[in-house]
Amino acid sequence: MPQGDAATSTAWETIKRAVGRLTRSSPPRMALLIFAAVIALFTSLLMMPWSTATGESPEFHDALFVATSAVSVTGLSPVNTAEHWSLAGQIVILTGIQVGGLGILTLASLVAASVTHHLGLRTRLVAQEGISTGKLGEVGSLIKTVVICSVVAEAVLALVLIPRLIIIEGDILRGFWHGIFYAISAFNNAGFVIHADGLAGVNHDPIVLWTLMVGVFVGSLGFPVLLLLWRYRWHIKSWSLHTKLTMEITTLFLVVGAVLYAILEWNHLDTIGTMTTGEKIQNSIFASVMMRSGGFSVVENVMEHSETMLITNALMFVGGGSASTAGGIKVTTFAVIFLAFLAEARGHEDSSAHGRTIPAQAVRVGVSVVAMGATFVLLSTLALIIITGEDLERPLFESISAFATCGLTSGLTEELPPSGLYVLSALMFAGRVGIMTFAAALTIRQSRIRYRYPEGRPIIG
Amino acid sequence: MPQGDAATSTAWETIKRAVGRLTRSSPPRMALLIFAAVIALFTSLLMMPWSTATGESPEFHDALFVATSAVSVTGLSPVNTAEHWSLAGQIVILTGIQVGGLGILTLASLVAASVTHHLGLRTRLVAQEGISTGKLGEVGSLIKTVVICSVVAEAVLALVLIPRLIIIEGDILRGFWHGIFYAISAFNNAGFVIHADGLAGVNHDPIVLWTLMVGVFVGSLGFPVLLLLWRYRWHIKSWSLHTKLTMEITTLFLVVGAVLYAILEWNHLDTIGTMTTGEKIQNSIFASVMMRSGGFSVVENVMEHSETMLITNALMFVGGGSASTAGGIKVTTFAVIFLAFLAEARGHEDSSAHGRTIPAQAVRVGVSVVAMGATFVLLSTLALIIITGEDLERPLFESISAFATCGLTSGLTEELPPSGLYVLSALMFAGRVGIMTFAAALTIRQSRIRYRYPEGRPIIG
Ligand SMILES: [K+]
Ligand SMILES: [K+]
């Protein structure tokens, strides 16, 4: 074995062992710390003079915000990514997106492994044992799978985007760099753009738009779903309940979002009103895909009607699939609550879907996630209204976008004073890492009290 | 026995028998029909020429809206109650409030009886049997208790208000009529006013303001709580879980609402900024009490800061106590969801409070009520934005106020075209009768499926 391979192998073993140790103690708390450390690292990198286009150190609040936005794969930014940062700075941001995306997928998949049977860890109990007794092989192979899966997906997207962007830009190096940037930004649902005028320059190019859509859509399904789709393809009967629910709700919301967007904006001259019918349809689908959590926008959201922004709020809040780079409360959380409602309305003792009972515990975890999310958004909206003196609409939109790490913007982020940027930074962190680790903590919880009180029934409603 | 008494007694028997028959079949559906019929009756009364000040028939949409608002004890109105209606019309409205309030308390208490042990119907099962086998005596005595309780409370309020209003108005008859009107409006949490300029004329009178506050507060606790407080007073150990939770959350929200209102509006010249310190405090408490569901306002809500309106939105949505004339999702629903969150965060198997386990079923009913409420509010807000072209703030405020039958207004109701009035009418009906009967249907459900599917665990969050 050559020396290089041995060194790589040893480094790999060290990483596997470190991850094993971390997951063994308190995985959620460690995840919080790791994410905070990674954000601190990327903030300090962006603070370097060579990171900006002017060669001067950026403002701390801008660097912190952009680092948080990159690592949490949100895409909100108080500064123009193309103009404010040097190429080096942009590479730092792209690295932040990649590291953040991989970190989220890995951690979330570890959690997912403990609740689904499709990652080689057969039951929830076995999964816990597997992690807590340090079966490093499985954790290691999970990380490997995540990395390979991400790199392959990003490579495919880049291979489509690069030739097209070379033609559009008329510059091989620029096309190459932009293709890689957008491929990574899309698959990780990051929504960062490095054209000074956003996607306006490519907004008539169906190849670019559809590639971004596919990248965002695939990325937003979540790792457990992707792995299962890879294994079983369209043998729907072999799909897990989680995969079925994710695919159903994602498809439903995609259609609902696109149809409503088209209906409400069809003749709106500030948005898609002046486009051809084909472009109107294409842009409606694009807008709907990006509400999931993609965060790319061809049309400025603040130009849309208030009713469109309200629908966008609702769809952003739900977000994408669990253990994906999409944020929000997640489509399966929505599904579990909707199914609980349905079961109540029908008078069924248990809520169920596709011949599977959904445990009451899952409903309670779901409710907790939604309650936490709603509280974060409420507090942030309140803070932004007080800070900016704006009325409800834009602070709410921006808060939901940050919480759901979506990255669509009403333009408010660019106008915020430092205090407002800190609020949204905290919300991106809480929305991304907080919700994920909170759900993780609840799901892989080991200690449960054994005694029960007698029942008491308050009146509901 | 004199003939009059016999006739009364027979009429009473007939009513008892009718109620028994209705509750035996499908109580929730019957409640919907009865409320719709009562609203239709009061709409047609208001359509009479003698109901208006001008002696001409009012617009149908105005009559329908005001009848719905009165019977659902909301208090929103597209027309000025003092100026648009004749004395006869105002009496119709007041009768609508009284009938609606009694109907809500009776029906809601029937439901409450099936989940608490404090109305002589010992267990949930016994309660169902009691109703379904037609034990009319208990239903009859419940109605009697509700009526007596309401009339006594309203009489006490009127006795305080009448002398004071006679002095303020300088007119015995006016003072008498206004005292009775405000007493009924306050205890039933209706929020209707019959001063042309709202409460502005009495807004410096602490006796009137505090009497309204006490009336609204007592009315918003709910009948089961009132009955239990009457029986056990402040022997808190004897209180039911429901009473404890209701008192705790109500007090908490009262304090939070008042403190936040004071902090946010203290120096706001359009609202309380020009008042004396004492008046500022008094008005902050008043505003907070009315967010529960009272709907009286001294300061126009639309003049408040956006952050105050947002907090008002949140507190209105939660509303008051179960089986009360207050609306919203109810404070115990909030408590159940908060306790579920707390239990999850602490890793407890069951959520519990005051030494009582809260059944998972209660959490699911609570979630269903919240999901239904949020959906209603979302759809109504969307419709109002489309109808009016307004941005988010006022349509959301008005929708939540209608859903929670609160009656605070951003001024939008007065500006709405007929289509908008129909939307809010539907929302008041759905928010009041829909939520109540939905929760009732869930709670007293008899048929539950017996089989269970194997468990499936989607990933949450
Ligand atoms: K994003
Ligand atoms: K009211």
Automatic annotation (TrEMBL), chains A, B:
One Pfam family here: TrkH
Q: Is Transport given among the entry's keywords?
A: yes
Q: What is its main location?
A: membrane
Q: According to its record, how does it sit in the membrane?
A: Multi-pass membrane protein
Q: Where in the cell is it found?
A: Cell membrane
Keyword Cytoplasm recorded: no
Q: Which UniProt keywords apply?
A: Cell membrane, Ion transport, Membrane, Transmembrane, Transmembrane helix, Transport
What domain of life does the native source organism fall in? Answer: Bacteria
Q: Which residues cross the membrane?
A: 31-51, 63-79, 91-115, 142-163, 175-195, 207-233, 245-264, 314-342, 363-387, 421-444
Q: What is this protein called?
A: Potassium transporter TrkG
- Protein's organism: Nesterenkonia rhizosphaerae
